[in-house]
TrEMBL record:
Name by which UniProt lists this protein: cellulase
GO BP terms, alphabetized: cellulose catabolic process
The protein's enzyme class: hydrolase
SUPFAM superfamilies: Concanavalin A-like lectins/glucanases
Native organism: uncultured symbiotic protist of Mastotermes darwiniensis
Length: 325
């Protein structure tokens, strides 16, 4: 009797750009070899399934050592694509690199002087499944989820911004479980809004966004319980501390999903690192009104006049507190 078996046949394996970050202790930092993979969706154009892509040609992404650049306007299969969303794969190229942030420190350097109103260049983490989702897995960028349940997939999210215009801060979106009950509004600190410090993150400001800046985030804990999230910036050899940090007191968290400990439980399970660049006319929540200095938006004009606009991330470091900068 002939048995018939159905199987899924993948196309040629994708050539993921090589990427290096560093793990640090008080004794120093050690390079870690990894890879970059694009999300399985290419902008709003296509679910690429298992189709391999040319990172520079198709999505405007270039990677060299520990530096990642994302260009705003790209072309994939003859159609315009805006920005990109990238993840870090570990050395086996089968699973996402998992960062367990509680009690640790995460640092990177960003160059974002080209970013304009309505353009969001963001670096953040989400509790995505390490293996992605079948049948494509992490190797083709599947399994995305976040605190706003984009594409219907929910999971805890932590925003470590630093690459957008006139606004910078911290923001966490804990969830009651790894996959639902997310606090979509979350809790955040924005110096422009919350401290009325409108020159903190600005061209020529205390943190001068016309120059590269190193962004340091500390996930302070008692044992394995997250208690506070602090932010520092390093520029020109000077350490600049944010005026406020995230804590239960600052966030008015009072139990259940809304606690630092709950967010820390998600960090203990592990998060995937996300590099993102995109735009939109409805960005006043990000960089207008009480959040930033932008007063008008015309991203179609930005796309037409500055198609090569880019953000560059580099020198990602992860390790013990006060060991990465």
């Amino acid at each position: 009797m002939l048995a018939l078996f159905a199987c899924y046949v993948f196309s040629a394996a994708e050539a993921h750009p090589k990427f290096t970050y560093k793990k640090c202790t008080k004794g120093g930092c050690t390079p870690v070899s990894a890879f970059i993979v694009h999300d399985k969706h290419i902008g709003q154009v296509s679910d690429r399934k298992d189709t391999a892509i040319d990172y520079e040609k198709d999505v405007g992404v270039t990677v060299s050592g520990g530096t990642v650049s994302q260009k705003l306007v790209n072309t994939y299969n003859g159609q315009k694509v805006i920005g990109s969303r990238l993840y870090v794969l570990n050395a086996d190229e089968k699973n996402y690199e998992i960062f367990k942030l509680t009690g640790k420190e995460f640092t990177y350097t960003v160059e974002m002087k080209e970013i304009q109103c309505g353009v969001n260049a963001a670096l953040y983490t989400c509790e995505m499944p390490a293996a992605g989702k079948p049948p494509y897995g992490a190797a083709y960028g599947s399994g995305y989820c976040d605190g706003n349940c984009v594409d219907g997939s929910c999971c805890p999210e932590f925003d470590i911004p630093g690459g957008f215009f006139s606004c910078n801060g911290l923001h966490c979106s804990p969830c009651s479980t790894p996959t639902n009950g997310c606090d979509t509004s979350g809790c955040g600190y924005n110096p422009y809004r919350d401290s009325q410090d409108k020159t903190f993150w600005a061209v020529g400001g205390k943190v001068d966004v016309s120059r590269a800046v190193t962004v340091v985030t500390q996930f302070v804990a008692t044992g394995t319980t997250l208690t506070e999230i602090k932010r520092k910036y390093v520029q020109g050899g000077k350490v600049i501390e944010a005026a406020k940090s995230l804590s239960d007191k600052f966030c008015n968290y009072n139990g259940g999903t809304r606690t630092m400990a709950n967010m820390g439980a998600s960090f203990n399970r592990g998060h995937v690192l996300v590099f993102s660049l995109w735009d939109g006319d409805g960005m006043s929540w990000l960089d207008g009104g009480n959040a930033g200095s932008c007063t008008s938006y015309n991203v179609r004009q930005v796309e037409a006049t500055s198609p090569n606009l880019k953000v560059t991330w580099s020198d990602v470091r992860f390790g013990d507190i006060d060991s990465t900068y």
